[in-house]
Amino acid sequence: MTEPAKGPASYFPSIEKKYGRPIGEWQELIRGSDLAKHMELVNWLKSEHGMGHGHANALVAHTLKEG
């Protein structure tokens, strides 16, 4: 049996459902951005893509952690 996702990844199914893009696509957008700081990226996702704070924060945290 698969372990349930923990941490930021636990938000991924609802992010994909609510915003209509796969997580990999969101991560490409984050990595392709000229922004580098965590909160700059969070605020960009919120303002440019209409994402809620929790979802944006989870995506940015997970993406930056991956490197």
Defining traits:
single chain; 67 residues; mainly alpha; 4 helices; 66% helix; globular
What does this structure look like?
This protein has 67 residues and is mainly alpha-helical. It is 66% helix and 0% strand. It contains four helices and no strands. It has helices at 12-19, 23-32, 38-49, 53-66.
Instruction: Report the end-to-end length measured between terminal Cα atoms.
Output: 29 Å
SS elements, strand count: 0
Helix content: 55-70%
Mean pLDDT: 93
Q: Could you say which structural class the secondary elements and strand pairing correspond to?
A: mainly alpha
Largest sheet, in brief, is: none
Unreliable stretches = none
β-strand amount:
under 5%
Order of helices and strands: HHHH
Radius of gyration: 11 Å
Q: How many helical elements? A: 4
Categorize the overall geometry: globular
Give a concise summary.
The chain has 67 residues and is mainly alpha-helical.
What order do the helices and strands come in, and which of them pair?
Blueprint: H1 12-19, H2 23-32, H3 38-49, H4 53-66
Helix pairs in contact: 2-4, 3-4
